[in-house]
């Protein structure tokens, strides 16, 4: 609030942030309208209008259409459908919302006997199932919208004196464009909740939230590294041990139903990611295509983990040698950014992984807009690349797509550099700036 602002009895900063988040998310739903009207059945329109989403395809491609438990080892189901390649938190959510979508469409659960006899590749075009697909997207959109609002609430409450920082999340173009591509917001809200819990000095709750996030997406696990650095600086090793134990316990509890009902299916997430080669958005794909050299999954695995390990050591040294104890969001942002920079795939919605951490780490509009400009450029480029609209007329690889990837990484590195500077020179950190008083001007005499 400005020095002349009187405030408002009802329109508190948190409520304003929530309203803006709702409007931003609604704009994202409108952006997917072209695909929704065609039930994502037009292969080119999804790239022309940039309205692609994984949700409708996974509904029929991963047995949600038959309400099959994602980790069942039933031979008939496994012969017809691929196993969900996501962590258990997302699989549970996808399975549960399939029930809700079918109940909303049919005002009750439909009989599955007939569709169980159809070939899987014909299900997507079935008019009855297309209606379910639209309901499936609607149900998920409403659920994810609630998670987006909850994320905004946590961000606005993390720094008691700076609720308006959350507006950079609420009005984010990245949120509007990518929130409905996949279920990444399930992990995002848990990361935001973990930073809020840590700001309230609740290490056990922080650990539980990190564990739940890790059961939904792997990257929330990296927050424990940030917690370790803060605890080393403040000599609070007990808090780190409590957070770690709580994270492990929460992860085990959430994963246990999946593991007990289908250990082989549960392990697919780990094997799928280890066997995956260079993919969309990654620097590995640029190198592979630019040099016309095949890069094996093993090479990518070794190279990316070595780089990430070295990056984590660098963040550790940075955190220990900083003049003041870095904030959790700063360290968490740096660690997750390092993981994404060399990951074998960098999907457009992965920007959501960084968004809450970036907003808390560097709450300045200019820096957020520079970073997100690169993300928006990549968002446009990846869909046109997949639609073959960036291919040279003479044939060959789409060099424009490589440029978009490099610009995206450069914008991310820009924000990384700013955060590193804030850690090394805390007087530049917007969250700490009130703690510093500028020295009086030097008097010139003579």
Automatic annotation (TrEMBL):
Query: Which family does the similarity line name?
Result: Belongs to the glycosyltransferase 87 family.
UniProt cross-references to Pfam families, sorted A to Z: GT87
Q: Provide the species name.
A: Nocardioides marmotae
Alphabetized, the UniProt keywords read: Cell membrane, Membrane, Transferase, Transmembrane, Transmembrane helix
Keyword Zinc in annotation: no
Q: Secretion signal: which residues?
A: none
Tell me where the transmembrane regions lie: 133-156, 168-198, 204-228, 240-260, 302-321, 328-346, 398-420
Task: Give the primary localization class.
Answer: membrane
Which molecular function terms from Gene Ontology are attached? hexosyltransferase activity
A cellular component term (GO) from this record?
Answer: plasma membrane
Ranges in a coiled coil: none
Q: Which InterPro entries match?
A: GT87, UCP010361
Report the protein name in the record.
DUF2029 domain-containing protein
Q: Is Transmembrane there in the keyword field?
A: yes
Membrane topology of this protein: Multi-pass membrane protein
Cell location: Cell membrane
